Input
Amino acid sequence: MADALPVEDLAVADSPFLGALALLIRADDRYGAWDGKSDEQLLRPYVLTKEDRQAIPIIGNPDPDTVERLELFYKAVAYRTEKASGLMPSLMLKMHNEGFGWAVLIAGRLVVHSRHHRDIHRFGFPSRAKLAEEGETHVAAVLAMIEAHPEVARL
Amino acid sequence: MADALPVEDLAVADSPFLGALALLIRADDRYGAWDGKSDEQLLRPYVLTKEDRQAIPIIGNPDPDTVERLELFYKAVAYRTEKASGLMPSLMLKMHNEGFGWAVLIAGRLVVHSRHHRDIHRFGFPSRAKLAEEGETHVAAVLAMIEAHPEVARL
Output
């Protein structure tokens, strides 16, 4: 994976979802290691080209850093949900072996999001723009679910 | 923990919940180690006297066998739910450190059961009768939740 940033990609400042994700990554930084880094640098590991992805073996369990990136992705969805609805969903991630996993976001008694993953080893997006788009799609789906069953989400 | 069984306790044959739990324990027995054991013997580790519980240290993470017993307890709740409603909830267990955990049962998009645990190290019941009673209480709560929001449970 090259360290160079594609200059033409979406700026973090132009996407509330990317901003939330960068914020959560910084919140996890207990040693100040990322103080000198830009938001774009912090999100760098989320961007994988097709070749990057193919170079990652899907044997055994995924790298813990990758699982953490997946968790932070969903936490950013939860964070954006809270901004829009006042409800902060909780994440539960059930990792199976070999990179299979099930992620759910729960608000009250409502499963506001449910997604099965495979090949988590290769979790990533072709660009920051695509990462932002995917994140916003998830947030929209969560908000629609809450709107459809508001009383269950507030139980 | 003594191996002797309190003879006056509830027989497994007299409780559908205890029967489900014994069945699930046997289903996990891939080596035939429990073929010669009675259902009462299989459920023995679920029964802890007050003294048994106090003798278990609550420092560090709980024993993996204890966590598995907790999981099977909830799977028995799910199994009994399926018998009564046709819906088989999925278990998600989020273990934190030091014996804290959050267990949820999910049917469709409905969280049919949600319970926070602490001191999981000491998970157990004073008797089989109490274990059965607690299990049935959980099943009744799950069924009431499904009845209150049937359309969400079937999403």
About this structure: Chain B touches chain A through 15 residues (CB under 8 Å). The first strand of chain B starts at residue 90 and ends at 95. Helices of chain B lie at 16-27, 39-43, 50-55, 64-85, 128-148, 150-153. The two ends of chain B are 45 Å apart (CA to CA).
